[in-house]
Amino acid sequence: MCKGLAALPHSCLERAKEIKIKLGILLQKPDSVVDLVIPYNEKPEKPTKTQKPSLDEALQWRDSLDKLLQNNYGLASFKSFLKSEFSEENLEFWIACEDYKKIKSPVKMAEKAKQIYEEFIQTEAPKEVNIDHFTKDITMKSLVEPSLSSFDVAQKRIHALMEKDSLPRFVRSEFYQELIK
């Protein structure tokens, strides 16, 4: 627990700084919700498709989280929405898992697996995702010898959670409603 400023553990200070930054962002009112959209670029070497999607494309996102996640503009809109709700850790975990699956080197894979575990899976992680103990145990066991599928069970659980919970909220949000006007 965080007590007295002088005795704040490092993680509490980091959390306090994150909250301060997030509150500062909230206090800055943009002219429109679309101004909050920052395109996410999965492959930095290629330019991001920042073009607004067609109405048909955006309407497909209501029924398919996968179609939303495959579209750079949709991913950026969804991420901005989740940030506005302080609930972006699930999406960040999903993206980290997708990036992890692209790693070829066993050494880099082990490093990235450790980083993902420490950031999202372990108890009291800075961006701890909400997975059940069974899933957490399976993931921890698979990290003894990291492989491309080490996070598959946890990633599927988080995907299902986003599909069931986050996507419906996004579809009802101003972020999405402005896109389909």
UniProtKB/TrEMBL annotation:
Chain's role: Inhibits signal transduction by increasing the GTPase activity of G protein alpha subunits thereby driving them into their inactive GDP-bound form. Binds to G(i)-alpha and G(o)-alpha, but not to G(s)-alpha.
Alphabetized PANTHER family for the sequence: REGULATOR OF G PROTEIN SIGNALING (PTHR10845), REGULATOR OF G-PROTEIN SIGNALING 5 (PTHR10845:SF42)
Domain of life where this protein originates: Eukaryota
Protein name per Swiss-Prot or TrEMBL: Regulator of G-protein signaling 5
Pfam families: RGS
The species this protein was found in: Dipodomys ordii (Ord's kangaroo rat)
Domain annotation RGS: ranges: 64-180
CC annotations in GO: cytosol; membrane
Any one of the GO BP annotations: negative regulation of signal transduction
Organism ancestry: Eukaryota, Metazoa, Chordata, Craniata, Vertebrata
Gene: Rgs5
InterPro entries for the chain: RGS, RGS_RGS5, RGS_sf, RGS_subdom1/3, RGS_subdomain_2
Location of the protein in the cell: Cytoplasm; Membrane
CDD domains linked: RGS_RGS5 (cd08717)
PROSITE patterns tied to this protein: RGS
UniProtKB keywords: Cytoplasm, Membrane, Signal transduction inhibitor
Keyword Cytoplasm included in the entry's annotation: yes
